[in-house]
Predict the structure.
Amino acid sequence: MKCKKAKILVSASLDGELSRREQIALQRHLSTCAGCAEEKAKLSALRDAMPLWADEEPSERLAESFARRLQQLQREKPVRRGGPVARWLLGTAAAGAATALIMVGFLLHGLLVQQVPLPAPTKVVKPPAATEKSAGSQPAPKAPSTGVSEPASKPSVTSREPDRVSSPPVRERYPGRRYFANRPSPHGPRPGKLASRHPTSMAEARQIVAAKMAAAGIAQDTATTQVTDDLGEAGLAMNETIERVRGNLQKTVDLIVSAFPAPADDTLDSNGGSAP
Amino acid sequence: MARFQAGDSSAMEELFARFQKSLFNFFYRMVGRRETAEDLVQETFLKLCRFGSSFRGSDAKFTTWLYSVAGNQYRDYLRHSARRPETPLPDLEQTYSDGLTEPTPDAGDSPVEDYLVRMELRTVLESAIGSLPERERLAIILREYHGLEYKEIAEALGSPLGSVKVLIFRARQRLREKLKDLSADGGMD
């Protein structure tokens, strides 16, 4: 060992900062080097002199002054819980989740909640004039394989007249539609009124889109059938996506919460030193 | 600190009561002026209030973190004041050329003389420590007067452990050179 390194180790040995191996190496060197042994004696004497500069007491005004400034700070900015990173992450996650849910909601409203024509009343007594008028009107396109019958003609004003409809109970006419079930119209169902449904399978989605196209007077050909299929797939994919987003958001929030636990306790001792 | 992080604002006042003295002496030894040291103590604790939530009790001791913040506060102070400690301690040679009797640890035969000798030794020691380079001064003060281990000093200074060993060794060598004329028994010369 060279004297330069030995002197550094001598200094560290005074603070008990040597490893066992370093202690042995230093002892071996000191036993053969008078200069380094003398260095150790000098540094020891210096260390004994250090406590001459004893601690002093701060003024009594210091605590009062700090208490005032602390109160002022708390008035300006209340103490918040959690770390800045945790707060940022949680805030961002919450804002992102809200935005994503709103966007998905709008998309679903537009794509999945298709308006489906309701079945026509079983018996509608129409005035002859109205029947003749409707007979001359444009026939509605047939909705293939929708399972929901489209009215044979565009509804006329007279077809909505009250007490001319002999219809089954509301729940039979509109199963699953609590809105209508709770609030049956005194005028009976309106043939042109459209109901909303959520598709749960590709076939059902295709039916809904086809019915919508039929209601809009769009002829069913190869191109539109493709569009129907595409829209149906998109609707189903969106359904799956929103469920996945919900699951991922929950996992993310759980991860963030578990990643920033509150510290169990501090490690202070009573005299300003550090606890072992 | 955990209580403060949990929203108990009175916990900071308790922390202040517990650590104000040690932090005051840290700054006093660094800047050499009581008023400035007390200002820096307050600024350091106010900084703890603002950024206390970043302290992770499981990763570091509070005292290590406290002196790390205090060291940054001292460096900020130096940057803003753009000067060395406000009361640079007198050079030893100048001290003795002014006619002071060279003090020795056992020079006094009476308690009064002994007290005066110790006071003069202390003045010289303050001067010697005040003349050290900043990082050496920080390291030796944290080691000798605040009892931090080398590893903790390395964290507070943001330096490798090996550098801390060298910093403390060099500080001691400089102090020994400054104080070598003070020792009557030859212990430091």
